[in-house]
Design brief:
It is a single chain. 42% of the residues lie in helices and 23% in strands. By secondary structure, it is α/β, with parallel strands linked by helices. The strands form 2 sheets. Strands 1, 2, 3, 4, 5 and 6 form a 6-stranded mixed β-sheet that branches. A two-stranded antiparallel ribbon has the order 7-8. α1 crosses α7. The longest helix has 13 residues.
């Protein structure tokens, strides 16, 4: 089954997760970074996975633009949705709920929060200041959920 993993990654965490999903799904999986590919032909793919990161409570606009522009095609494919976000529990679930429209969430085979990272060394001064004040973090920290990534892979493979 030919799969496209379409993602945007600001500091690299979502890209890292996309690579892990690609490795888990196998050879016929193509990574497509929306930063470098504004127009994507979805017709060769049987399965589409969309992933983005949460910043200030919102998924990137390029992800929103992509799914709004391609909604009809996405509903004709097997679909998986994920976010990377540093928060856990109820806050992370609320961010996942806001990240994608209801019609795509209902159609998706798997929807997961994959955890996230605070990569302080990749942030600009303003981002560091906000992270320190809002989250209270002053050094790099990782909360990637390997088990969620594996569940996602299994669900996309087996459903």
């Amino acid at each position: 089954m030919k799969t496209a993993i379409i993602y945007v990654s600001k500091h690299g965490t979502t890209e890292k997760i996309a690579h892990q999903i690609q490795q888990g799904l196998g050879l016929e999986t193509e990574l497509i970074d929306l930063k470098n590919n504004a127009h994507i032909d979805l017709s060769p793919f049987d399965q589409i996975i969309i992933g983005g990161s949460i910043h200030a409570g919102m998924i990137q606009n390029s992800i929103k633009d992509f799914y709004n522009k391609n909604a009809v095609s996405l509903l004709e494919k097997r679909l998986g949705l994920f976010i990377s976000c540093f928060y856990e529990g109820e806050i992370a679930q609320k961010q996942l709920e806001k990240a994608y429209p209801e019609v795509l969430k209902k159609h998706a085979i798997s929807i997961k929060v994959m955890g996230g990272e605070m990569l302080i060394d990749k942030m600009n001064f303003f981002e560091k200041l906000i992270v320190k004040k809002v989250v209270g973090i002053t050094q790099t920290d990782s909360k990637i959920k390997i088990e969620n990534i594996q569940e996602f892979i299994n669900e996309m493979r087996n459903s």
